[in-house]
Sequence to fold (1105 residues):
Amino acid sequence: MKQNLRFLFLTVTLLLLAIFSSIEASAQDKRVTGKVVSSTDNIGLPGVNVTVKGTTTGTVTDADGKYAIDLKTSGAILVYSSIGFGKQEIVVGTKSVVDVSLVDDIKNLSEVVVTGYGSQSKKEITGAVATLDAKQLLSTPSTNLGQALQGKVPGVVIGNENSPGGGVSVRIRGFGTINDNSPLYVVDGVPTKGVGANGVSNTLNTLNLNDIESMQILKDASAASIYGSRAGNGVVIITTKRGKVGKPVFTYDTYYGTQRPGKLLSMLNTQQYADLTWEARTNTINQAKMVDGAFPAGTSLTYPTHAQFGNGATPKIPDYIFPSGTYEGDPKVAKDANGNYVNYTTDVNSADFNKTKWLITKANKEGTNWLKEIYQPAPIQNHQIGVSGGTESGRYAMSLNYFNQQGIMINTSFKRYTLRSNTEFNVNKRIRVGQNFQVGYASRVGQPNGNSNESNPTTFAYRVPPIVPVYDVAGNFAGTRGTDVDNSVNPVSLLVRNKDNRQNEVRLFGNAYAEIDILKNLTAKSSFGIDYNLYNYRNYTPRDIESAEARSTQSLTTTNNYEWTWTWYNTLTYNIVLNNLHKFNIIAGTESIKNYYENFDATRTNFLVDGLDNRYLSAGTGVQTNNGGAANWRLASEFARASYGLKGRYLFDATVRRDRSSRFAAANRVAYFPAVSGGWVLSEENFAKSSATWLSYAKLRVGWGQTGNQEIGNYNSFTQYATNPALSFYDLNGAKTSAVPGYELVQFGNVKAKWETTTSTNIGLDAAFFKGKFDLALDWYTRTTSDMLFPVSPPLTAGVAAAPFQNIGSMRNRGVDLGLNYHGATLGGDLTYTIGANVSTYRNLVTKTNGDPNTQYFGINDERIQNFVVTQQNFPISSFFGYKHDGIFQTDAEAKEAPKNNLGSNENRAGRFKFVDVNGDGVIDTKDLSIIGNPHPKFTYGLNINVNYKNFGLALFGAGVQGNEIFNYVKYWTDFPTFFGNKSTRMLNESWRPGNPGAILPQLNSSDQVSILPSDYYLEKGSYFRFKNIQLTYSLPKSIASKLGLGPCRIYVQGQNLITITKYSGMDPEINLRNYGAGNDRQIGVDGGSYPASKQYIVGLNVSF
Fold:
């Protein structure tokens, strides 16, 4: 009986458990997971609403387009919706994984935009953010990122040095400071300022453009403030390519082409040079005999004597310029029976070697075209192989790249090798890890002495007289050693001797990260990034015995430095959608950055031989100098951003960041950078849907925020002392010592310096019309920088120590950015086309300078004429400064009635510049100096046209600027009697003479040192439009490619910079930045002998398999 009862109890218990388990199982939710991608590129879509039809149950996809949702019934219908895409409904049935591909309804709204420490879909962005994908970036094969960006983004101005591997400057929405205007670059989450602490190495030059997947430019503070003190000039976020799920895909991308010089200056030949010299000297000698700039009939003239051209009424071209002005048969240039010059030796052991009388040089009677000698055609090539692929648990993308560009300036070059590895793995359903690393090696030979320098080859090419040949009679370099042949240097010799002076750089750049889903909607991420750079430069300067200012001793300077920066940030991200109405995205995190830099350089002189194998410090037996130093800085930060969306129509963002920088003294070390923004999707409102059928999409954006700038050097708050073995000073304790090395003051400190703060307001509109065929992005902005940092020079009585940065004033930029695109198709879809245009404008104004509106901060005064660029209150930064002139005096009577000219003696006379008495005091003097011009354009613009017909494609891209002025400093050398160098044909043909009232230059006179003063004569209109790229492509049909075992295969031919429309007389109108460094924005728009852009003709191939 007990056994039966026990059995009955067990049976009933098991039955009840089964029933309840069944009931529980039937009531338990069914979990469905999946991924939502774009049909155009198969990339995951974030922010897609996934809801159960007929209920309020829903979720939203994460940054990768993935989602998970719990269902009450297996018959549920899931609805997938997102602004810019067609809605989809799918019956789940028994499926537990549902992947969906959404079709674009409006172009570009599906783009995933990488913002600070996270990502959003473009339709949710409320700040001013511009995006470029790999196709747009690589449409023009470019050496560096700046060239790839040029003209493609409204509000972004690019300055390129143009020489192979040269510097590049990116300026976003004008110039926000008198200090450093460079944006922050963030590559795969790792920040960098681009240029290293040595001022030479450049992250952007070692970055391989073929590895870039997308780029976002954060233009206003509401978008960039999460980067705080480093984002005052905008942020450029770069994401490199990732692997996708699928079998391995191999790619090979290559192009090869030739580069050719564009426009070169028109200079004088030898006879013209002699005639101009003679006319100028004759006028000078006989100036007192002139009446109205002419010699009366019967005037007895005194003619000049010239070491090369002799004396008399006309110049005579000699056979030899060294010995000066000699002719065939002269004993100094006699030949022996074998036809060899008897007074010439190349034997370095001869006692006569290095004596000027042995450098026999024949005159080039036709004239040497020095610009053509140094600017010649050169090849360019690029090769890249890549592989990518993966599974759901792991993906990879790897590449190897080789780039080689020979410069159009002979013996300049840039080579780069890069290796990249990007991987990501799903450890399990909750944990993901990955890494993105690139190691690169770059080797560069640039223009010796850099751009805009009177000692670079470009400047020497229009300074060396045409009578000087490239080589002397023995095949060695000729020079200016003769009398009356200027003091310049043979530019060909300079380039040949500099060809082995390479700048070598090795850089490791990347990060490793881990992500974990702590809860359903809560994700933690930790990323550690490193930027490690090794730099080496050996600069060997050989003897230069053929020049007027000869250098008889060689020298070698070896520079070595290394720099590393590590960045560690940690974030928590929370995403949730409530009732399918309220969408929240919250991110909070910390970031720590540390930088260390160390350098060493040494110099030796007097080497026995000049051979490359002998160029080591130990081989020098002369003067020995050594220098070294180190520096470091740190930044610690906390940040947070909250985003809220209501019904996908009303969007709100708020951001705050707290930075602590070691660069400021303790009292000013901490700063806060807040931002708020909002968006209203007008097109989702019922009134828009019902009444404006032509409107596909419209979103109004408003944003306000603050960012900062801390680029002031690492020890600005400290007064610094250093030893100097060449000088004797006092011990630090103040005790007087004997004549032994002591300490000297090298920098004043400033503990009161505080953060530079930029406050930005942005109002924008994104819209699309006619089912997305036409779209636009319009932004109006104002950005004001307060407490600008600048090293104000102390009084001369303070000594030679460097000035510290001080907060001196404020600056404002206001402008408009506009981007337009039209997408069309015809012929049954066989012919498709896209027309895109962008235009932007900014107005820069210095609103305050140190409390004194008359305070002036001049540019870099390393030119022969100085103080012609100034930054001053109530004017734009880097305004041109000088004298105004009102033509040329036509008669002596007119000159006599004009205000007295106190700039030089006897300046008011026929044929001289008529300077304007600006202050009206009746005298022309330095009080008449004023602002005379503006380097900032009224607007910049770009134009893109892409046409595709079946397998053929045509792409046209052009860019230009309008309304800016250029200070053509080259004219100082080419248009005035400066030294004895060559001159422009303009000086010969357009100088004033009696009967030529329309002349633009004063009368030729070799003693005129007033006309060369900075004036509006140097200013020229800098407007231009340049066809940057013309490309014709052919894509192999898929049917043929598949038979060959290939994926997409494309070949193309391309021309770059082929057509330039401009009135500028110089070689290249793209002169908007000077040396492309941080502090040089005080002297923009100056052409001082810059390396011109080349015309390129390229053929390329892109293939995958």
